[in-house]
Amino acid sequence: AQSVTQLDSQVPVFEEAPVELRCNYSSSVSVYLFWYVQYPNQGLQLLLKYLSGSTLVKGINGFEAEFNKSQTSFHLRKPSVHISDTAEYFCAVTETGAGSYQLTFGKGTKLSVIP
Amino acid sequence: GAGVSQTPSNKVTEKGKYVELRCDPISGHTALYWYRQSLGQGPEFLIYFQGTGAADDSGLPNDRFFAVRPEGSVSTLKIQRTERGDSAVYLCASSSAEANVLTFGAGSRLTVL
Prior knowledge:
The complex is a heterodimer. Chain A is an all-beta fold.
């Protein structure tokens, strides 16, 4: 079984400042990693994913994340945030291989961008 | 359709009543998933369909919860004898057979009074 820990439940940041949302996972097998964003009253939207290859993954809206196997982390970063980035962000993990469908989510981090 | 569609978007019911929540996945997606998101929590897996059959229903909390997908497309999540603890947002997602990426709907918010 796997688990995900998002270390910060809320992160306030000023507009145009950089941000990092932290995610650590636990698993006894190889994993795929995801970040989803949830805007108010909307469904989850995929930001980026790590399946294999380069450990630095670029996603939509200028976000990127780096997979660090030794530290079992997959932190999300953006060099300069906008007001429109205000949302809740969820890190998720699933085991690799056939039938890997059951995503395990963290509890989420609410990003508030301050004008 | 273009995305995953869920109805109703909001449902308020009384304790003990029966509820059905519907999910219409992306056309051609063979896999369909139900998740539940309680307040302040991340989504939790309920059940997964591959085609018409439930490939994994290990996340269903008890036998009051049941889901069907009779024609391999639309799915209905059914909750009997609802309890206040069932209040949550129920999320549906779909994916193609080859993909590991789930596309989520906007969810159905269930409130049990």
